[in-house]
């Protein structure tokens, strides 16, 4: 089994949460430490609003990004202590999103998509075309051909 890069996973999953907290800290610091005035209040309000926006983005993105291990016979979605296993025939589609360096996975009978990172970086070939040259990419390419996955 080849597991996706855990460092990229945690950075991508919690980036917006950390950035929201930084925005709130800056906004709160400006509000508390600076003398009260319209300009300082408005600036603090902007930072606090951006913090809320980034928290909303975190809530949307954090559920969709998962850690995944790919093997010759199955795909395992790692959810803490619990692992969800899917066989390759259950995969509806598996595509590379080139500029974000992500895979997009759809499972038959499941609502929504799962996004995960490859084990190594994907090499961009020509503009929008990307090719995963890692072991994970080889397994994915073989199984996509074998089972007719989009």
Description:
The chain is of the alpha+beta class and 150 residues long. It has two domains: 2-61; 67-147, PH-domain like. The protein is 43% helix and 27% strand. It is built from three helices and nine strands; from the N terminus they run βααββββββββα. The chain has helices at 6-33, 38-61, 135-147; strands spanning 2-3, 67-70, 74-79, 82-87, 91-97, 102-107, 114-116, 123-126, 129-131. The strands form three sheets. A four-stranded antiparallel sheet has the order 1-2-3-4. Strands 5-6-7 form a three-stranded antiparallel sheet, with no helix packed on it. A hairpin with a 2-residue loop joins strand 8 (123-126) and strand 9 (129-131). The chain is elongated and about 65 Å long. The two termini are 22 Å apart. The mean pLDDT is 84.
Number of strands: 9
Mean pLDDT: 84
Structural category: alpha+beta
Looking at the structure, the CATH topology of the largest domain is PH-domain like
Query: How many angstroms does the end-to-end distance come to?
Result: 22 Å
Net shape: elongated
The CATH architecture term of the largest domain is Roll
Flag low-confidence runs: none
Helix content: 40-55%
Provide the spatial order of strands within the biggest beta sheet: 1-2-3-4
Rg over CA atoms: 20 Å
Summarize the main sheet: 4 strands, antiparallel
Number of domains: 2
Number of helices: 3
- Quickly name the level 1 CATH class of the largest domain: Mainly Beta
Secondary-structure element series: EHHEEEEEEEEH
């Amino acid at each position: 089994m080849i597991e996706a890069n855990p460092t990229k996973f945690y950075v991508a999953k919690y980036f917006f949460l950390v950035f929201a907290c930084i925005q709130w800290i800056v906004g709160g610091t400006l509000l508390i430490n600076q003398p009260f005035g319209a300009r300082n209040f408005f600036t603090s309000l902007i930072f606090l609003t951006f913090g809320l926006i980034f928290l909303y983005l975190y809530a949307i993105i954090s559920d969709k990004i998962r850690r995944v291990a790919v093997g010759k016979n199955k795909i395992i979605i790692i959810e803490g202590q619990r692992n969800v296993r899917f066989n390759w025939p259950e995969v509806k589609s598996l595509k590379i999103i080139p500029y974000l360096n992500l895979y997009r996975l759809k499972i038959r009978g499941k609502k929504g998509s799962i996004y995960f990172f490859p084990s190594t970086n994907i090499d961009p070939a020509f503009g929008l075309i990307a090719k995963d040259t890692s072991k994970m990419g080889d397994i994915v390419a073989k199984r996509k051909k074998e089972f007719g996955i989009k």
